[in-house]
Amino acid sequence: MSTTLAEQPFVVDSHCHLASLSYSGKAGTTLEEILCRARHCAVTHYLSIACELSEFDRLRELTANRPEVYLSCGVHPLNIKAGERVPADELKSRLSHPRVVALGEIGLDYHYAADTREIQLEYFAVQLELAQELKLPVVIHAREAAADTLKLLRSDCARNVRGVLHCFTDSVEMAGACLDLGFDISFTGIATFGKSDNVREALKYVPLDRLMVETDSPYLAPVPVRGVENEPAFTRYVLDYVAAFKEISSSQLAALSTRNFETLYGVKLPETNPPEVPCSRYKLEPIFDVPLGTQVKACPRLR
Ligand SMILES: [Zn+2]
Ligand SMILES: [Zn+2]
To answer: Domain segments of the chain: what residues?
Structure first.
């Protein structure tokens, strides 16, 4: 990888669900604490996703006065209510919020809900058309639904629509097809799991200028903290793992992932200073306060 790339002191968690954290565990009991922990890991910006309208409303309130938290809203395939139409007008009103940069997550999930295939397809198509109309990039969730996902992304519904396949777990062929269509690919902690050879195959294939890292917190905590509630700070584990796998430094990957994020979502992430106040109200785990560029080691106390 190019050695001319500037070293970068911070990284963005390109996909998390701040309104779905439990606020009861180690991750912290307030958003303030959770983002403070993340800042101590140099994770300074976030795209927080809402999977339905009510989640967006909670998220908007929760993150008021937090310019570093970007927002996205869509109806997730597992949040579709049988017999209801896509709430297009309500969704549009949510998407007009100034911190919204994307529509999603939307898509298809045949792993958990193969029985609702027809209505999932309808919701996906309608929301892709909405993204086209609003000129918003989309965040796509595709699970065991590669063929239908591609069919819709190649259809008129998605003409000129760009976006990202988040939490990528599909084949190299699927990655290639999505890249050809202009979509980026984002990886979670699943890439660090022992059994995820297929994800690592895709990771090997996806070029660095089309790749992002994310936590998808509170789900899918990466190795070495698998099993605990995931939080934005753990972007560092995904970042460090992917960087080592791609044989570049963590700060180079941070720079690339941030640049790809800025390009896709049309934002410029401001440089942030290191955390001004140490989070003294609670004990920081040893992985915190590790400057970007230092490989993060497993933290036994978090296991
Ligand atoms: Zn998802
Ligand atoms: Zn998600």
So the answer is: 11-289
Q: Record the pTM.
A: 0.91
Per-residue pLDDT of 218-257, as tens digits, reads 999 998 888 889 999 999 999 989 999 999 988 889 989 9
For the segment 174-198, the average pLDDT, to the nearest whole number, is 96
Cα–Cα separations (whole angstroms), residue 292 to 105, 172, 210, 243, 252: 29, 30, 21, 12, 10
Report CA(4)–ligand 2 centroid distance (Å). Answer: 33
Separation of CA 188 and ligand 2 centre (Å): 10
Question: SS3 for 206?
Answer: coil
Q: From ligand 2's centre to the CA of 159, what distance in Å?
A: 24
Find residue 186's DSSP bridge partners.
212
Closest CA to 289 of 213, 211, 236: 236
Question: What are the b/e assignments for 172-207, b being 16+ CB within 10 Å?
Answer: eebbebbbeeebbbbbbbbbbeeebeebbebbeebe
Q: 11-289, superfamily in CATH?
A: Metal-dependent hydrolases (3.20.20.140)
Two structure tokens written together for 198:
């297929």
> Percentage of the chain with pLDDT > 90?
73
